[in-house]
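Continued from yesterday's entry.
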Amino acid sequence: MKKLTLNPKLLRSLLPVALLLLLPLPLFAHTGDGPHNGWLHGFAHPLSGLDHVLAMTAVGLWAAQAHDRIVWLFPLIFVAVMGVGGLLGMITLPVAFAEHGIVLSLLVLGGLLAVRQRLPLSASVLLIGFFALSHGYAHGSEMPASISMASYAAGFMLATMLLHLGGIGLALLCKRFAATFWMRFGGIMIACYGGFLLTQ
């Protein structure tokens, strides 16, 4: 059995990322900024719901697991389409499937991670686009009327991209240390949370 050792260079390079991930907690706890600050409010929105955090992380995990050569394609597509969904939500155009799309994103992405399933590129893009539209609509529809649409959208799109990057980083760590079990386990937990929301 091959002995796993921690590479000190790798640990040093991951330290700034770990510190960055810890920043949002104190940052949003003591800013004193309310809904009038569009950028901060938008940035905080995806981080305030477990459904969004898990789904965004799952996109990064799945992109790194199933599509090594185009790992950045899905996060970029997701953020772009999510911006369109956010605009639909901001102008209150009714999109009835948005809440169902969020739950489905957890069930489907979690299931794909659990079984390590690869899909054709076209099917993957359609899935990612549908889920992004749903999440974007949810963010946009909950935007307070008193803040800037552009800064709010920039905030939630940046937070989403950082969550995607976190998922990609976790996937790469699992691959580096031959711990694909944890990716499967994470997929099962994500899908179970989606199932829980489905029963509510």
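--- second protein ---
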Amino acid sequence: MNPALIHAFGKTELSRAKTDKADARLIARYCQMHRPAPWVPPAEAIVTLQALVQRLDDLLGMQNMENNRLEMAEPAARASIEALLLTIHQQIDVVRRQIQDHMDDHPDLKSQKALLLSIPGIGEATAAMLLAFLSPLTRFHSAKQVVAYAGLNPRIRESGQWAGKSHIAKAGNVLLRKALYLPAVVAKRYNPAIAAFCDRLLSRGKCPMQVIIAAMRKLLHIAYGVLKSGQPFDPEKALA
């Protein structure tokens, strides 16, 4: 369960104590009242893939930080930063090869990756991220649930005649959400279904960032449909 649900449930009870025992009782009361579905651990292949894509994300973050430091570094510190960047770059290559080999060694992951790569805008890294965090796909009954899991569903704020600005909920998997941004930018240009979709939104006066977020949702819808059907991307069907 999303921990935010337990936290919100505690607020309805006006919980004031924050101890291990109090939290355990709170979780027990929540489960007794709402009867959540039992947790099913992911397959070992998915656990390994999740660990690898998370490690790659960590390495890319460290690379970005060290590149920023290098731009502002004094000459005396540059050699140390460059040496660390070289090591990080080597490790990024190693982990990327591990991800590739891991998916190739598992027929299900390999076939699902091929389906995702048929979608213009999705590359190797995005396919690995999607398979790592959407598997098993049977957890989701609709594309809307997948969008909510990524935290890309809109948070609508209305009361009577008043309507506030709608933002995305962000109550979901942050790595999955982050991994879809650049693919959506590429798909907006090269994926015919998403390009037509974005053009319609722009003609309605939507701002560029709103269009990109909508493209991220659309791309996730398409990825879910491709994996669910077992059929590669068909632009004619998507446009229809």
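The chain has three domains: 3-34, 44-105, 137-239. The radius of gyration is 21 Å. Will compare against the first tomorrow.
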